[in-house]
Design a protein that fits this description.
Blueprint: E1 17-22, E2 27-32, E3 41-44, H1 46-50, E4 59-62, H2 72-75
Parallel strand pairs: 2-4
Antiparallel strand pairs: 1-2, 1-3
The structure holds zinc ion (ZN).
Length: 77
């Protein structure tokens, strides 16, 4: 079963990726939607994955194996 909603408030889109905060390393890891909800992780839809922002000094690691997702940079052209 999939189709978990985006965890952003007031967003009704289906989540496509899971964001996990690694506090020890000041990293935000964005990867494919996890099977189970985990502590310190947030499910995000496509839009919010693209607009991901992290605290200053944090690093974002993107694992973009989202099943043939089109690179948003290319889609905009
Ligand atoms: Zn969203």
């Amino acid at each position: 079963m999939d189709g978990r909603p985006c965890s952003k408030v007031a967003c009704a889109n289906d989540a496509v990726s899971t964001l996990t905060y690694v506090y020890a390393d000041s990293m935000a890891v964005l990867g494919p939607l996890s099977r189970a909800a985990e502590p310190h992780s947030y499910d995000l839809c496509t839009k919010h994955s693209d607009r991901l922002s992290v605290p200053q000094g944090w690093q974002v690691i993107r694992h973009m194996s989202l099943g043939g997702a089109v690179d948003p940079q290319q889609r905009a052209r």
